[in-house]
From TrEMBL:
Residues 704-804 form the Glycoside hydrolase family domain. This is Glycoside hydrolase family 2 TIM barrel-domain containing protein. Residues 162-266 form the Glycoside hydrolase family 2 immunoglobulin-like beta-sandwich domain. Residues 62-149 form the Glycosyl hydrolases family 2 sugar binding domain. Residues 631-688 form the DUF4982 domain. The lineage of its organism: Bacteria, Bacillati, Actinomycetota, Actinomycetes, Micrococcales. It holds the Pfam family Glyco_hydro_2_C. InterPro entries: Beta-gal/glucu_dom_sf (IPR036156), DUF4982 (IPR032311), Galactose-bd-like_sf (IPR008979), GH (IPR017853), GH2_Domain-Containing (IPR051913), Glyco_hydro2_dom5 (IPR040605), Glyco_hydro_2 (IPR006101), Glyco_hydro_2_cat (IPR006103). Residues 276-437 form the Glycoside hydrolase family 2 catalytic domain. It comes from Microbacterium alkaliflavum. Belongs to the glycosyl hydrolase 2 family. One of its GO terms (molecular function) is hydrolase activity. It comes from the Bacteria. Keywords: Glycosidase, Hydrolase.
């Protein structure tokens, strides 16, 4: 099998009707895949997609490419593998309709043989569209990789090797392999499949072989159970990966095809008394919900960007992700396997009832089985995948027919893959929108003050109502793990009412992690928590913002951020990969950080009234450099697991305050801003447990450009990430000295994206300039070939800075 990246030589432009094309229309632009056709369009407050899409427009886009098909391919089988096209992809080969796939997230394959012209150039066009069909920024176009696959007519199809590990102990693991052989000729063929397993060090540890008779057009499955001695188990702490190579040969020994896959040896167990166990050890899921966009890259799914997100999420304390609300990319699954991050992979956001005007509910009833099959085919060999989620906050879930749909989906996933658990992100309120008046009456009868509580508390109380319990009982019963979105009020009562129920917090409010994690640790049947969100994202603009209500012209808008809000502003990590202060608080709550952490509320806003949403965090930064007069009042938070925290400025105590779990792991100090060194010291029983210091920037500021990796590969999955900062001679970054920086790239690369964590902005991601946010920005370069790449950043009033990366 030849599997070639099909990334270069494409153009994209608006899809033109016949008369528009005759008139000339807009000129297509050259692009390299993966590519997001929406990212560089003009945003507008009048966008019909509105706040959901971050005020981007939609559209219909056409990608085109001309490619050569050698004459000798006439005797081969040629396919095109699309990992994801958003949305309603229509593929034409040489002007002929070849395929259609409504889902924007399911991978699909186009059998190209019938449409190719051998020995001459061929033309492929792909149409994609997006218009009022998503509750978040979806992007559009061929945003995930495409491969050209050429193989013998007798071959192993894509995803034709499935590996499971049904029997594992310390001394021996049984690796069960199923390999499909497909014969597209008119004659029966005798073949042989040989398997080799290599350990994580690349050493062959086991081999096997079996003959396979392949009848015409009838898939044949070759199976073998291979013993691996002294297996190295895959876990979040030791993500050991084995490699299996399957080789298909003819009777004369000639190789017909080969396929390679990585896999992990591990066991999964689940029960309400010991929770989730991996390799016999109980694991609590420290989970992050993540959307599919890559911030400054839009939705372009490039391997290095997916790996970087997983790597930084793991470093921030997460050990699991939930894909929200669609199947995660192959590249991200590979990254989760490598870094030891567990995956809840989600099928869809809708079933048969719509949430937006033209969403996937229009196609779901006809395509759900194909989408489920694509999900499992993609995931089945990845040890990181432990759960499939059949949906998110499904509207019809609380009805009998909705329950039947849930059962149908759960059983289909179990049929396709009996080795993983099935869950669903249930929101009892969303499932009972037409009955909430009844639920509110019930709650009011119990406690009249609950109706005066904030939105988050109301949701929790309503989710625990008897009405919700009755309506979701059947839908919950079809699951292995019941996922509750904002339903932590059910955790304890459900242990008594449904003693065999295992629960996961599939979506939770970020600022409640201290209370939520205490429940997860205390209740064995609650296996983890997935915060909304781990990584900030485009669209659902401003859902986690903090408004200052005394701002001139302020108008309450609920959770919707007015234009020009672009980002949700609800992630622990912003879209550039910079950790916000909530990330360090969460790390302390998880018990993963002993040192305290300083978070300073911006002194220019001190005392101002604010409006928040349940997804908001404080407007705080870890900085002690401010354009504020000495003596200006300022609020300082210290996150700490220690019993108490002392705050010092230049060695002088500013006071001692309690911290630890009894005080939500936070000590708050009302003090005055004065330049110097601010130090927080944590103590438990009088013994210091750690300290954290911030220093005021001094002297002249300069620009710095630092590449995260000096050496990168030169293929279509490669990127170079360069952190740009304004800082003093000691590397201290001031938070209120922002300015416009401009970036240029020399060498075999292009500037793929340039951005900051600023949620409210009109600056495009294409560059070449951007205004720093809290002194920071991120530039992303994409190599176009091997060689040295030099990125230079400049700004008014400071000398330029450069950094060199090598692509090879």
């Amino acid at each position: 099998m030849i599997r070639l990246p099909f990334a270069d030589g494409w153009t994209v432009g608006p899809k033109l009707g016949a008369f528009e094309a005759l008139a000339g229309g807009a000129a297509p632009q050259p692009v390299t895949l993966p590519h997001d056709a929406v990212r560089d369009l003009d945003r507008s407050a009048d966008s019909v997609q509105g706040v959901h899409a971050g005020y981007y427009p939609g559209g219909v886009f056409e990608y085109a490419k001309t490619f050569d098909v050698p004459a000798d391919w006439r005797e081969k089988t040629v396919r095109l593998e699309f990992e994801g096209v958003y949305r309603d992809a229509v593929v034409f080969l040489n002007g002929e309709f070849a395929a259609h796939r409504p889902s924007g997230y399911a991978g699909f394959t186009v059998d190209a043989d019938a449409y190719l012209r051998f020995g001459e150039p061929n033309r492929i066009t792909v149409e994609a569209r997006s218009h009022k069909d998503s509750r978040w920024y979806s992007g559009a176009g061929i945003y995930r990789p495409v491969h050209l696959v050429v193989s013998d007519p007798v071959h192993i199809p894509l995803d034709g090797v499935v590996v499971t590990t049904p029997d594992v102990d310390d001394g021996l693991a049984v690796v069960e392999v199923a390999t499909t052989v497909l014969n597209t000729t008119r004659h029966t063929r005798e073949t042989r499949v040989s398997w080799t397993i290599e350990d994580p060090d690349g050493l062959a540890v086991a081999t096997a072989t079996a003959p396979v008779t392949a009848l015409p057009s009838e898939p044949a499955t070759a199976r073998v159970r291979i013993a691996v001695v002294d297996p190295r188990r895959w876990s979040t702490e030791t993500p050991s990966l084995y490699t299996l190579r399957a080789v298909l040969t003819a009777p004369d020994g000639a190789e017909l095809d080969a396929a390679t896959t990585s896999f992990g040896i591990r066991t999964l167990q689940l029960d309400p008394l010991r929770g989730l166990r991996i390799n016999g050890e109980t694991v609590k899921l420290r989970g992050a919900c993540v959307h599919h966009d890559n911030g400054p890259l839009g939705t372009a799914t490039i391997g290095d960007a997916e790996d970087r997100r997983i790597r930084l999420l793991k470093a921030a304390g997460f050990n699991a992700i939930r894909s929200a609300h669609n199947p995660v990319s192959r590249a991200m699954l590979d990254a989760c396997d490598r870094h030891g991050v567990l995956v809840m992979d989600e099928l869809t956001d809708v079933w048969t009832e719509s949430k937006t005007a033209f969403d996937y509910s229009l196609a779901f009833p006809d395509w759900w089985q194909a989408d489920a099959a694509a999900l499992v085919a993609k995931d089945v060999n990845h040890p990181s995948v432990i759960m499939y989620s059949i949906g998110n906050e499904i509207l019809e879930l609380g009805t009998p027919i909705g329950s039947a749909w849930g059962r149908r989906l759960a059983e289909e996933l179990r049929r396709l893959d009996p080795t993983r658990f099935v869950t669903n992100g249930i929101n009892g309120i969303i499932a009972n929108l037409d009955r909430m008046a009844e639920a509110q009456t019930e709650l009011s009868d119990k406690d009249p003050n609950t109706m005066m509580a904030g939105m988050g508390e109301q949701m929790a109380l309503m989710n625990a109502s008897e009405l919700v319990s009755r309506s979701i009982e059947e839908s919950a019963s079809v699951l292995d793990v019941v996922g509750f979105n904002y339903g932590d009020s059910r955790y304890e009562p459900d242990a008594e009412a449904y003693p065999h129920r295992v629960i996961v917090g599939s979506e939770t409010f970020p600022e409640r992690i201290d209370a939520l994690w205490a429940l997860v640790e205390r209740l064995p049947h609650v296996i983890g928590d997935f915060t909304w969100t781990g990584w900030d994202y485009l669209g659902e603009a401003g859902i986690g913002r903090v408004d200052y209500t005394d701002e001139e012209g302020y108008t309450p808008t609920g959770t919707a951020g007015p234009y020009p809000y672009l980002l949700a502003e609800s992630g622990d990590i912003d879209i550039t990969g910079h950790r916000r202060t909530i990330s360090y608080w969460r790390e302390i709550v998880f018990g993963l950080r002993a040192e305290p952490y300083l978070a300073v509320h911006r002194p220019q806003h001190h005392g101002r009234p604010t409006a928040r949403t349940p997804w908001s965090w404080d407007d705080s930064v870890s900085s002690w450099t401010w354009d504020a007069a000495p003596g200006a009042p300022v609020t300082v938070d210290v996150f700490a697991s220690a019993d108490e925290v002392e705050l010092l400025l230049d060695g002088v105590s500013l006071g001692i305050a309690p911290a630890g779990p009894g005080n939500r792991f936070r000590a708050r100090f009302e003090t005055e801003y004065r330049p110097g060194e601010l130090v927080a010291v944590g103590r438990t029983a009088g013994v210091e447990t750690g300290r954290h210091a911030l220093r005021t920037a001094s002297g002249r500021l300069s620009l710095a450009a630092r590449a995260e990796e000096a050496a990168i590969s030169a293929d279509s999955d490669a990127l170079g990430f360069v952190a740009l900062t304004l800082e003093d001679a000691d590397g201290t970054v001031p938070c209120d000295a922002d300015r416009v920086v401009s970036v240029s790239v020399e060498g075999p690369a292009v500037l793929a994206g340039l951005g900051t964590g600023r949620a409210r902005t009109e600056e495009p991601f294409a560059g070449p300039s951007v205004t720093t946010y809290d002194g920071r920005a991120l530039a992303i370069v994409r190599p176009t070939g091997p060689g040295e790449i030099t990125l230079t950043v400049s700004a008014e009033g400071v000398p330029p800075a450069s950094v060199t990366l090598t692509a090879s």
